[in-house]
Amino acid sequence: MICAACGDPTDAEPCATCGASPVLVGRYRLVDTLGRGRSGTTFRAVRIADGAVVAVKEMPLRRADSDKARALFQREARVLAQLDHPRIPRYLEDFVAGRGKHAAIFLVEELVEGVDLDVEMATRRYDEPDVLDVLAGLLPILAYLHGRSPPVLHRDVKPRNVLRRTDGALVLVDFGAVRADGVDSELGGSTVAGTFGYMAPEQFRGDAGPGTDLYGLGALAVALLTRREPNTLADTTGRLRWRAHANVSPGMAMLLDRLLEPDIDRRASGAEAVLGEVRRLRGGGGAASAGFLDARGGSRGDAAAEDGRSEAPSGTSGGLGTPRGPAAGQDRPEAGEGARADGPPRTAAAAATSVVGEAPFGRAPLPAAPHPPLGR
Description:
single chain; alpha+beta; 5-stranded antiparallel beta sheet; 4-stranded mixed beta sheet
């Protein structure tokens, strides 16, 4: 057990080091550490009342080096408290506890047992049907978030933030970069958040919309198919040149190009519409449907740009029609190459995350024995 008052390991109550009760606010025993990041630590904990295993995220107030960092943490809690979806970790509570240098903000969530897709990629290769299955599992979650009023934007869709539960279902975790329209205003301006390679161009301007998460979903699909970090496939305009590294049907290629369109006004918008196209492709449709191509400006310019032809309409942005150049970067490292202390092998680019989301939260490696489940 970890003492919630001083952070030292202890088997005694009160704590042998500090003499205080090691139980967090009298309700949670901190069992072990799941992850550490620049802003805080995530623990596996047991809720004393019923023995349920939960995730507890701690951000020491001394590390909240700005009002914005604290506001981001509190915003994550407020947004999660409003969500109710079986494939999003359930919010339980948040509070401030501790004294002096040990004072901290805590966020308690349902703990999801499983393996994230970043771990899976170390030992598994994904083909088109596999990736379509992943898209079909995630798009209903995004449709739920974007259908809220105001829409909720995850802003950090990537393999590490998608967990495959023991029953095979996919869960979207780590809402540290979450944004809901109307909430950002209290932070004193736009906030840049996300992970390089999976961030849509508008995110670097502090902007975001439902299409931002769809771009991240497209980048996730490319990472699964190519086993490369998406930013290593970007040309000088920021467009991902991925087709030479994956063998997919014409319809799948058009779908990914629509998701990865740099110009948000021409990008596929609407998780429901994209889900319909995914279902059609899963049913054996090899070419993109006319209705999907015609929506929001089509994809013909994307295919031409990938082939080195210019069909960019005047007045559009994002480098449409830029001649294709050789893809940069290295293949994703296999097991044993470039391993991190806190997880599976990843390229250096995957570790570049801005603002929030450093500590894994709401997830855990599969336990040796089952724990009492949280009730819904």
